[in-house]
């Protein structure tokens, strides 16, 4: 058994971590922090956890996180980097679900996130926690940069094509849609039901924080830089991301066979039969990414459809997947969840 702490347990990602970890047979929840709700019972805030979590939220200053074996940061950007060094020195392994350690280019990170990085030397050590490409590095990592939700869906869809060198890397397009929970559990007008319901809109067309993360990951597998147009959209869904990806083929290839071979041994990537159209509801509540690949009219454009639950494979589920790899547990432990339907 390992002792686990969660910093920032009151957001959607934090409660999703709790939902998964309470059923993990190798995890003891040691501490869950919250500045605003310290002293409140966790199951009072989240009645779904009644009978499963018997803890109070603790103020971060009183959490004694150094007594944990692993700590998840389910916090806004800029929090984990303030505490990670001390935890690593205490022998704690850290999984950050925010963006503090995702970008290797510090200047780019500071420009996109509007703050000075507190520990740039640790960024080079951080392992990008996408198991489908970094499983071996994750096994021995002390510090994991858990990928963003859009980057997970987009990268998994493009990887087989770029690795095989069968598309033009300079003209990629990612048209992605997300549910409102991707914005977090906070009071903001765009996330109000009357604003987001019965509506559909693009945002961040001029530039989105996930763009450099996606380009960094795609460039690593392609061996060169990539050109990517990334346009996110907000949909009137609670959960889910649907990424429609476009690329120009450079040679003829059996796309279905390519994708099936690439992900044959991946427990959480499901390549669907030829002609399929995966739906967000088919992954709701699960850690699975479902992918379908198309070649419309047999032309030179490839279209990849990639769907995930933004709170699970796009955040908390992937973080638990990383935990399992780091501590040599079965990778699917606590994650073999059948998606919810309806």
Automatic annotation (TrEMBL):
<dbReference type="InterPro" id="IPR023013">
    <property type="entry name" value="AGPR_AS"/>
</dbReference>
<keyword id="KW-0028">Amino-acid biosynthesis</keyword>
<dbReference type="GO" id="GO:0051287">
    <property type="term" value="F:NAD binding"/>
</dbReference>
<dbReference type="InterPro" id="IPR036291">
    <property type="entry name" value="NAD(P)-bd_dom_sf"/>
</dbReference>
<protein>
    <recommendedName>
        <fullName>N-acetyl-gamma-glutamyl-phosphate reductase</fullName>
        <ecNumber>1.2.1.38</ecNumber>
    </recommendedName>
</protein>
<keyword id="KW-0560">Oxidoreductase</keyword>
<keyword id="KW-0055">Arginine biosynthesis</keyword>
<feature type="domain" description="Semialdehyde dehydrogenase NAD-binding">
    <location>
        <begin position="3"/>
        <end position="141"/>
    </location>
</feature>
<dbReference type="InterPro" id="IPR000706">
    <property type="entry name" value="AGPR_type-1"/>
</dbReference>
<dbReference type="GO" id="GO:0006526">
    <property type="term" value="P:L-arginine biosynthetic process"/>
</dbReference>
<feature type="active site">
    <location>
        <position position="149"/>
    </location>
</feature>
<comment type="pathway">
    <text>Amino-acid biosynthesis; L-arginine biosynthesis; N(2)-acetyl-L-ornithine from L-glutamate: step 3/4.</text>
</comment>
<comment type="function">
    <text>Catalyzes the NADPH-dependent reduction of N-acetyl-5-glutamyl phosphate to yield N-acetyl-L-glutamate 5-semialdehyde.</text>
</comment>
<dbReference type="GO" id="GO:0003942">
    <property type="term" value="F:N-acetyl-gamma-glutamyl-phosphate reductase activity"/>
</dbReference>
<dbReference type="Pfam" id="PF22698">
    <property type="entry name" value="Semialdhyde_dhC_1"/>
</dbReference>
<dbReference type="InterPro" id="IPR000534">
    <property type="entry name" value="Semialdehyde_DH_NAD-bd"/>
</dbReference>
<dbReference type="GO" id="GO:0005737">
    <property type="term" value="C:cytoplasm"/>
</dbReference>
<dbReference type="GO" id="GO:0070401">
    <property type="term" value="F:NADP+ binding"/>
</dbReference>
<keyword id="KW-0963">Cytoplasm</keyword>
<dbReference type="InterPro" id="IPR050085">
    <property type="entry name" value="AGPR"/>
</dbReference>
<keyword id="KW-0521">NADP</keyword>
<dbReference type="InterPro" id="IPR058924">
    <property type="entry name" value="AGPR_dimerisation_dom"/>
</dbReference>
<dbReference type="Pfam" id="PF01118">
    <property type="entry name" value="Semialdhyde_dh"/>
</dbReference>
<comment type="similarity">
    <text>Belongs to the NAGSA dehydrogenase family. Type 1 subfamily.</text>
</comment>
């Amino acid at each position: 058994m390992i002792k686990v702490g969660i910093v920032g347990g009151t957001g959607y990602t934090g409660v999703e971590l709790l939902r998964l970890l309470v059923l993990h047979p190798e995890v003891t929840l040691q501490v869950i922090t919250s500045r605003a709700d310290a002293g409140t019972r966790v199951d009072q805030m989240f009645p779904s956890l009644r009978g499963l979590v018997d803890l109070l939220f603790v103020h971060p200053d009183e959490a004694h996180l150094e007594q944990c074996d692993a700590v998840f940061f389910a916090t806004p950007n800029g929090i984990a980097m303030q505490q990670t060094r001390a935890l690593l020195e205490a022998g704690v392994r850290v999984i950050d679900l925010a963006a503090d350690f995702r970008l290797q280019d510090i200047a780019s990170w500071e420009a996109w996130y509007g703050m000075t990085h507190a520990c740039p030397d640790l960024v080079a050590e951080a392992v990008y926690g996408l198991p489908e490409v970094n499983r071996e590095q994750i096994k021995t990592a002390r510090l994991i940069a858990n990928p963003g939700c859009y980057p997970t869906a987009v990268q998994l869809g493009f990887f087989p094509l770029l690795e095989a060198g069968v598309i033009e890397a300079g003209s990629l397009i990612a048209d992605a849609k997300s549910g409102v929970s991707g914005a977090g559990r906070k009071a903001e007008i765009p996330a109000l039901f009357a604003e987001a319901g019965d509506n559909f809109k693009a945002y961040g067309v001029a530039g989105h924080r996930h763009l450099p993360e996606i380009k960094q990951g795609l460039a690593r597998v392609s061996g060169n830089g990539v050109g990517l147009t990334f346009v996110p959209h907000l949909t009137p869904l609670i959960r889910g991301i649907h990424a429609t990806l476009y690329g120009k083929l450079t040679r003829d290839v059996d796309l279905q066979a390519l994708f099936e071979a690439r992900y044959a041994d991946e427990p959480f990537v499901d390549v669907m039969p030829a002609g399929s159209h995966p739906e967000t509801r088919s992954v709701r509540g699960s850690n699975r990414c479902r992918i379908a690949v198309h070649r419309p009219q047999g032309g030179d454009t490839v279209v990849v459809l990639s769907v995930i639950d933004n709170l699970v494979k796009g955040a908390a589920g992937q973080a638990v997947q990383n935990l399992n790899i780091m501590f040599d547990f079965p990778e699917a432990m606590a994650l073999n969840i059948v998606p919810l339907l309806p």
